[in-house]
Design brief:
alpha+beta, about 100 residues, two-stranded antiparallel sheet, HMA domain-containing protein
Length: about 100
């Protein structure tokens, strides 16, 4: 009879013992934008500017995709869970730009 499969914390890399509590997570980041820049005139210059921005961006299409949709799942240990909850649980008092 085989025991449970070994688990490793996705955050710190520590191997978790079968008797240790662990936490499953799924994290999905989806890029959104509520308001488009409407300063442009809608002319060919705007399209050319957009094309230049795209050409200057990452060459790997996966990088473009990850800017719009990034997803990870796994398990974390108790210590890393505390960090994640503290980090994502409530915004800091100064919630200004990074």
């Amino acid at each position: 009879m085989a025991g449970p499969s070994p688990k490793t914390c996705a955050a710190c890399g520590r191997h978790l013992t079968p008797s240790e509590a662990y936490y499953r997570f799924t994290l999905v980041l989806q890029g959104e934008q509520d308001v488009l820049d409407t300063r442009g005139s809608g002319k060919a210059d705007d399209l050319a500017s957009l094309l230049r921005q795209m050409e200057a961006g990452p060459e790997d299409p996966r990088e473009w995709e990850e800017q719009v949709h990034w997803e990870r799942a796994g398990v974390i240990c108790s210590a890393c869970r505390a960090v994640v909850v503290r980090t994502l649980g409530s915004p800091p008092d100064d919630s200004g730009p990074h």
